[in-house]
Amino acid sequence: MSFLDILAIIIPAALYTAAPLIFTALGGVFSEKSGVINIGLEGLMLFGAFAGVLTTLALQDVVGAASPWIAILVAALASALFSLLHAVASITLRADQTVSGVAINLLAVGLTVFLIRSIYGKGQTDFVDFRLNKEDLPFLSDIPVIGDIFFSQVPYTSYIAILVAIIAWYFIYKTPFGLRLRSVGEHPMAADTMGINVNRMRYIAVLLSGAFAGIGGSVYALSISGNFTGGTISGQGFLALAAMIFGKWHPIGAMGAALFFGFAQSLSITGAQIPFLKDIPSVFLLIAPYVLTILALTGFVGRAEAPKASGIPYVKGKR
Fold first, then answer.
1. Is residue 184 a contact partner of residue 195, using CB atoms and an 8 Å limit?
2. Phi/psi class of residue 141: alpha, beta or left (left: φ > 0; alpha: ψ in -120 to 50)?
3. Is the CB of residue 8 less than 8 Å from the CB of residue 177?
4. Backbone torsions φ then ψ of 135, nearest 5 degrees
5. Which of 5, 10, 160, 307 might form a disulfide with 185, Cβ 3.0–4.6 angstroms?
6. Count of domains observed in the chain
7. Is residue 21 part of a domain?
8. Is residue 318 part of a domain?
9. Burial class of residue 118 in the structure, from the number of CB atoms within 10 Å of its CB (0-12 exposed, 13-18 middle, 19+ buried)
10. What pLDDT sits at residue 283?
11. What does the alpha-carbon distance between residue 210 and residue 40 come to, in Å, rounded to a whole number?
């Protein structure tokens, strides 16, 4: 097996597994740029996966292959509404944001499992008939060498995730909205003095984080797992949170880190096909993403500072 053959196996698999992480990490960027810590990304992903699978099952006999795409939009809305709990607790009630995020994670598991058992009488849903399938990009997949590596057998959602990361960078750093978002995360009192509604901007940011995490969860469920159980999302939200930190709270950095972690996750899928990995016990390949996450965050991130007002509730008129 040549080096190019190995790349043609690893890179499509990395793009495939990275898409949910990219979407969710971008959600974390929006929330934390506004000054609200959101470690509830895992729970928001789980709720998005739940909403996405149920919507697909409900619509697949009516709209067929379009059902997963509609389900992604429904999941975004559902998780955005679910994230309101975190927004109310951390912004309006000024609760500890870390505790609120943990509560979101626990509530999402309990609520979704309860609803699944109530609806299906068992701990999991049926498998969906229509998934977000791996596709060859028209024209680009025909390019010699790089076509097979980058543009073949990858769901469209992977390319959409990369495009959305670039759009998020533009909005955060090149628009008035982004300037207001960053200002309430760095100096909320100064922003308030300039007439910016700090709490409203933070609510918008948390809702966006919920929507992006919902998209990430639904993309994972509809492309990788194919159904929903309480363990469908098992650590991916925390990997996305790590990608956000590894990327230094920057959309492009978060995307790059998510691609790195997606590559690590893909090893458990592609390892059996790669000569120098096939003899490694599968359990080591399964834990590789988490080991690499620890190594990345402890040894290679360097100096990474969160927004100055991150985790600090804003009280008008109080320094």
1. no
2. alpha
3. no
4. -135, 160
5. 307
6. 1
7. yes
8. no
9. exposed
10. 75
11. 9
Question: How many residues in the chain?
Answer: 319
Q: Residues 6 or more apart from 32 whose CB is under 8 A from it? A: 38, 185, 244, 249, 306, 307, 310
How many angstroms from the chain centroid is the CA of residue 130? 21
Residue 307 lies in a domain: no
| Banded model confidence at residue 231, pLDDT cuts 50, 70, 90 | confident
Instruction: Tell me which of 210 and 246 has the higher pLDDT.
Output: 210
142 band by pLDDT with thresholds 50, 70 and 90:
confident
Distance CA 265, CA 229 (A): 20
Residue 206 · residue 36 · CB < 8 Å: yes
State how far the Cα of 197 lies from the Cα of 17, in Å rounded to an integer: 38
Q: Which residue has the tokens 């950095």?
A: 253
Bridge partners (DSSP) listed for residue 229:
124
Question: pLDDT per residue over 89-107, tens digit each?
Answer: 999 999 999 999 999 999 9
| Comparison of pLDDT for 228 and 300, the residue scoring more | 228
Residue 19 tokens read as 């898409």
Q: Is residue 317 one of the residues assigned to a domain?
A: no
pTM: 0.93
Cβ contact 206:92 at 8 Å: no
For residue 13, the SS3 value is helix
- In whole angstroms, what is the distance from residue 214 CA to residue 13 CA? 22
Residue 62's domain comprises: 3-298
Torsional sign, CA 51, 53, 54, 55: positive
287, 269, 205: which is closest to 18 by C-alpha? 269
Angle 251-270/236-246 helices, nearest 10 degrees?
A: 140
Token digits for 248? 């230094």
- The helix (run of H) or strand (run of E) holding residue 77 is helix 67-87
